[in-house]
Amino acid sequence: MRIIDFLEHSPAFSNGDAQFIDINNDLSLNYREMFDIAQHVAVQLKEKGVQEQDVIATYAPNSIATYCCIFAISEIGAIWLPLNVRNTFEANLKLLKKSNARLLFVDLDILDANHQLVEQYKDENCLPFTGKEIAGIDIQNFKNKFIKEAEEKLIRENDPELISLFPTGGTTGDSKLAEWSYLTWQSMVSIQIELMPEPDITPSYLVSAPMTHAAGVASFAPILQGSNIIVMEGMIPDVILSIIEKYKITHLFLPPTAIYMLLAYKGVKNYDYSSLRYFWYAAAPMSVEKLKEAIDVFGPVMVQTYGQAESPMVCTFLSAKDHVDAVGMDDFYKIRSCGKIAPQIEVVILDDDANILPLGKEGEIAVKGDLLMRCYFNDPEATNEIRVNGWQKTGDVGVFDNEGYLTIVDRKRDMIISGGFNVYPGEIEQLIWGHPSIKDCCVIGIPDEKWGEQVTAVVELKDPNDKLDTQEIIALCKQKLGSVKSPKEILIWNELPRSPVGKVLKKEVRKYFWDKVGRKI
Hints:
Layout: H1 3-8, H2 11-15, E1 19-22, E2 27-30, H3 31-47, E3 55-59, H4 64-75, E4 79-83, H5 89-99, E5 103-107, H6 108-113, H7 116-120, E6 126-129, E7 133-134, E8 137-138, H8 147-153, E9 162-167, E10 177-181, H9 182-195, E11 204-207, H10 214-217, H11 220-225, E12 228-231, H12 237-246, E13 251-253, H13 256-264, E14 278-281, H14 288-298, E15 302-308, E16 311-318, H15 320-328, H16 332-336, E17 340-341, E18 346-350, E19 363-368, H17 380-386, E20 387-388, E21 391-400, E22 406-411, E23 416-418, E24 421-423, H18 425-433, E25 438-448, E26 452-461, H19 470-481, E27 489-492, H20 506-514
Parallel strand pairs: 1-12, 3-4, 3-5, 5-6, 11-12, 11-13, 13-14, 14-15, 26-27
Antiparallel strand pairs: 1-2, 7-8, 9-10, 15-16, 16-17, 18-19, 19-21, 20-21, 21-22, 23-24, 25-26
Helix pairs in contact: 3-4, 3-8, 18-19
């Protein structure tokens, strides 16, 4: 199995109905044209001496040209390494070195701004491209010119074992590289299609969040189903919302922070969202109040999954019906959950001695199944640290209810120990998120002589000019959660630090306070 098989085995490959449409570069390709260009680029890779299982990176904004590169890498059995343009250049350079990447597809503007890439990669191993041209091909005008040459030169011998290297979030340190085998990819796409079947209207999937991460990974199931793939770069609310209306988008994936941005846009209710069937969110918990608002604005189409780079995307599923039912019954627990266990995978809760815990008991979430990564690339020690008795530990603390819904309590490492009590920030953040003036928040423990760690909330406002009554929020937390779990202080920052995929970087917030005392706990 190769990623390009999702394209070639799609019904749209033969019927020609669906298109890849690039908004920023004003061009489009049908599935067969996409395949033909990818084949030609694959020939050029072979001519450069690239072998099966060499690592090839893509470092470029969202575009259908980037899809061409991904399919070409797949065609020759090489290993794809996606680099996020929203990472710092230094972080991506570390990933390139860590992966021993043989060759780099890089956007021309990125290359011009970062000449260190030329120093690391000789000209023949650094392939610049633009949104409209790749490997000497004018994408829009390409018409089956190289099919015969490609078919003669691209002879598959074996299906590759390793398909891609996927960078982990790096929220606690440098990113690791998760090895995704053909089993990982097959399972992920199969589970996704089972959970989100083809809609009752022509499918159209929007890629607006970085295609190097969940939004792009999630596109290959719609590709296999024969969906239109609409590609854009940038998170501009009015552009995203107008594209949903114009192209009758049925599927899209966005992280919660991007959804908050759409909801904060004053004209959000001025568009037609009737085509939407799956508005998929994941990557971080979502405020219950904002989730209710999203259902009110976009309709009964919100779906949630849970996963991580080590067990990608679809370990659990909270369906659109689950969302509607939970809101209708004001079932706070269910709407806060990430759903039930997905098919083809096992999920349990473990105690600190790796014993499986019963329903209702909090512990570390662990997973098992073909969906899992093979291992961390060149890091057996890190792999062994998260594997126990056939299970892979996630680092997340969770609990199952009696109906089988899994709620993530918090990251295990984010737990605050205040006055000898264990405090999980997640439930505090959920309460604070509900305040109408707050865009986002982060609850951490900061140094305190009396408590060891003082529970503290750092918030970002929707409107920086708002006057927030912090004592009112503290009083609400005491009323709902008790004094132990209530913030002793609420600080207002202009902007919270975020990762390239929109997650709040608690390590950076913590660092601001803990560096002053010269310790970390």
